[in-house]
Amino acid sequence: MTDVRSPWTAMWGLCACFFMVMLDSTIVTVAIPAMLEGLDANLNEVVWVNSVYLLANTVPLLLTGRLGDRFGPKRVLVAGLVVFTGASLWCGLADSPGTLIAARAVQGLGAAAMTPQTLSFITRLFPPEKRGLPISVWGAVAGVATITGPVLGGLLVEHVGWQWIFLVNLPIGVVSLVVAVVALPDWRPRRWNRFDVPGALLCSGGLLAVVFGVQNGQHYHWGTIAGPVGVPHVIGLGVVLLGLFGWRQARFRRRTDGLEPLVPVRLFRDRTFGAANLTHAALGFATTGMFLPLVLYLQTVLGLSPVASSVLALPMAGAAGIMAMVAGTTWTRVGARTLVIGGLLTLGLGTGVLAWLAAPDTDPWSLVPWLVVAGVGIGCVFAPLTAAATARLPGDLVGAASGVFNTSRQVGGVLGSAAVGMLLQVGVAFAVPDAARTYAERLPPRYREEFVSRISDAANTASQFDSATPPVPSNLDPDVADIVRRIVVDVFHVGFTNAAKASLMLPIAILLLGALAATGIVLPRHSRRDQIANSPR
Fold this sequence. Notes:
By secondary structure, the chain is mainly α. It is 75% helix and 2% strand.
């Protein structure tokens, strides 16, 4: 094993890599309105820009965790960093929705190679009795990066264009690559492992089918995609493939040919590890899903610029960062379970009040206190949850455990992005026409039917959410047309606000389920004594 004189030098390099990966899971959200216009895209295509990254980052995680065990974590991390940085350049140069989606998929694959190695390195660089602080820092990075994404994204979109939300990765990637090459030890595996390739294909195909079906259900009106294949068939196929994957992993307990599972069953004999993964999935679902309706509401309804919406979210990012460090240094005394459950409930409370306050005429600054509450909740969770999950990682399963833990968060994020995006589209399709029917009563009877029809058509195409040229009945007197345009804007604002409020209920429900799962986090007394003895005072 290579000697490391300063494990903290390597630690900061790992944090830079992980920060970049987590940043890109949320930075796109704030740029959605700009990309809708700049790429002539619809909402479904732009939602896929985020979802395909999460999907490509999720599907290979189980395999890339194992690749680190086989080829060494440094080699896999460096390869992933090169792919990620190159794909970021491709994203910034994309000139169509299809090109950007393809580039984001490659970027996600690079992220998948890096993510498990960061946690794997921490468990190798620091012995168990000194692992508390670095794990806390790693968790704090995750929390801060998740919130910083929309803030940084808004500043970049406003001042230099949406392309720079991807190009900003270039200097970070280059510096991280230099640090990784120079500071990270090159551990070599002691033995060769055979991987479960059929299992990886089953898992990948299952996740792809389920997320594609959920994400595109509204786009295909929950019917036919091509020929006899419909959305229910694709989702059903995904569920079957994932079921086969689970059956195959459990079957490995009886194998004797040396082939290793991607998800060793013995990992889940530890109750805390299983509970932490369920909680991690719920957190990923909520934090990824909640930003889409919030950002679109702030910019589309309240009319905030990307920079203004970012400034509004800045206190949330600050609260998350400060609380993450506090939680990271106090969880050994307070208890990981207490902080995690409290954080999830606090995040749910903040999100719920934000949904309750949302209205077309809401003062944006009245939302700030509850954004701070949500940030405090996020900051309370990441570090204690990661520390609890890794407290008793077996040495020979570091890569597999890291892959599983990160996969749980990413699976939650993929489903959160897809499900909330789908609910938002469905909500708009119903809420905007409903508001149009109410407002149509203000018009002369002969205009009402065309008024409702035009708005209903526009509600099914997100790129038509343009208050500058709203759809109005033809052949109107100019003065009347101006009044109708103002009514149309009000209709869209009311309908979209109602749709956004409804879609936020799903992340809140998932947070409650996550809090329930977190009750299973139990650390043995000797583990907590060791962590307390070595935690910073």
